[in-house]
Design a protein that fits this description.
By secondary structure, the protein is an alpha/beta fold. Helices cover about 45% and strands about 20% of the residues. It folds into two domains: about 1-185, 2-enoyl-CoA Hydratase, Chain A, domain 1, CATH 3.90.226.10; about 190-220. The radius of gyration is 20 Å and the shape is globular. The N and C termini lie far apart (about 45 Å).
């Protein structure tokens, strides 16, 4: 049985090294695809979700990688919020009795320019919302308009409500296997431009120290 942990922020592939550097929980599409590719043809893929969400594009890629694979079983162990909520739609699923699912509309951190620029961003976000809503519609059979209304209200759903809406198949059985879960809650992506620069400098310094040590060892014939 292969385990895929959707823990912490859902991020771009190129951001993973920064999360690893800071010791933060984060998952990128490459992480998920690597486990899928290494799994045996008939090996179950158990996906454990406890995530506040993250980058829409990264979530879409993970959803697409999992969707339609008959080996996939999804387990919400804590929260499946934002981008994590539509990843949870990618296969047969169960949710802890104390689990939560949150759906909301896509957002951007900053938008600059004139009214035309803002309107373009608004139009793009509307399209993105409909694309995300398709995951909920495909899983549950609900009307697109209903899914959009849930997103517009930033709706939090209990385990029982998730099952009632058809978004999740069942409450996690008592004897189901578990996986370590992240202490994560809905919020903003923690990585900033300043933190990226800080990590780059620290990683560069570590690399310089390593190279200097290797040179010293070479000088001593080690």
């Amino acid at each position: 049985m292969a385990k895929i942990n959707i823990k912490g922020d859902i991020i771009y592939n190129e951001w993973k090294k920064y999360y690893d550097h800071y010791g933060w929980d984060g998952v990128c599409p490459r992480d998920v695809q690597t486990i899928i590719d290494k799994a045996e043809h008939d090996e179950p893929l158990d996906v454990y979700i406890n995530s506040p969400g993250g980058i829409v594009e990264a979530g879409q890629e993970i959803y697409t990688a999992l969707r339609g694979d008959p080996r996939v079983n999804i387990h919400i162990t804590g929260q499946a919020c934002s981008a994590a909520s539509f990843i949870a739609m990618a296969g047969h699923s169960d949710i802890s009795p104390v689990g939560l699912l949150m759906v909301h509309c896509a957002s951007v951190g900053f938008c600059g320019g004139n009214h035309n620029d803002f309107q373009k961003v608004a139009d793009a976000l509307t399209v993105i919302d409909k694309a995300i809503a398709n995951a909920y519609v495909t899983k549950s059979g609900m009307e697109l308009e209903k899914a959009i209304r849930l997103m517009e209200r930033e709706t939090w759903l209990t385990a029982n409500q998730c099952v009632e809406y058809g978004l999740i198949d069942e409450i996690t059985p008592v004897d189901a296997p578990t996986a370590p879960s992240a202490a994560a809650a809905y919020g903003e992506i923690r990585l900033t431009k300043e933190l990226i620069e800080k990590a780059e400098n620290e990683m560069k310094e570590l690399e310089n120290r390593k190279n200097a040590l290797i040179e010293d060892l070479d000088d001593y014939g080690v």
